[in-house]
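User: quick one - fold this with adenosine-5'-triphosphate bound?
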Amino acid sequence: MRTGFPKAAPGMRIGLLGGSFDPAHEGHAHITRAALKGFGLDRVWWLVSPGNPLKPEGPAPMARRIAAAERIMHDPRVTITDIEARLGTRYTAATLGQLRTLYPGVHFVWLMGADNLMTFHRWDRWEWILQNVPVGVLARPGQGVGARRSRAAIAFARYRVPATHSRALALRDTPAWCFLNVPLVHISSSDIRARGEW
Ligand SMILES: Nc1ncnc2c1ncn2[C@@H]1O[C@H](COP(=O)(O)OP(=O)(O)OP(=O)(O)O)[C@@H](O)[C@H]1O
Ligand SMILES: O=C(O)c1ccc[n+]([C@@H]2O[C@H](COP(=O)([O-])O)[C@@H](O)[C@H]2O)c1
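Assistant: Sure. Structure tokens for the protein plus adenosine-5'-triphosphate:
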């Protein structure tokens, strides 16, 4: 699935799921399927991060994380890529800026679990992200209320797209973000690591 810089035609709607994927698990696969359907996406790219700038410890080697992700996610609409390492970016705003230049006419949507909405205001240029790229948030166990009350959710409350209009999120003028209430999957990479299964 990993093919250097993934191909994309103008007009495509592509969801970007950034993550450490240390390791990838069924929760990632589940929200990816939900996002494809719920946000009306043609593709999802898993951006396997060189390292979350807010996490003090680096993840497992990229090749190992990519191989594990490929074992979990088998869908021709999903591409697993180390594009951030290739671009030399690790901040999401920088990645999105470069992707918009590299793929003119592609409608990107930034995807994330609700836990990341809670801490989103600590991300580099987080307001720029919301002002320039539609954001799709997927429910995550234990994060629903907190995410809706988060600083980013409150600051951009009037740009929230109702779930009834989620399927056109990629085509909306920005700012636009949408919270999708998907069935909850109780799994995390930290749990897998804590059990010594990675
Ligand atoms: N079970 C899940 N339900 C909803 N979203 C999830 C789930 N697992 C991961 N995500 C989302 O997928 C993206 C990538 O997650 P990540 O690779 O950090 O996995 P993680 O399980 O959250 O890892 P860790 O436990 O190490 O923090 C994030 O936006 C995260 O919110
Ligand atoms: O850009 C930032 O400041 C920033 C801060 C924290 C996390 N991120 C991104 O959020 C995504 C999820 O990170 P993680 O480690 O929770 O899987 C991943 O793509 C990170 O690069 C980005």
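One thing worth noting: The CA atoms of residues 158 and 176 lie 9 Å apart.
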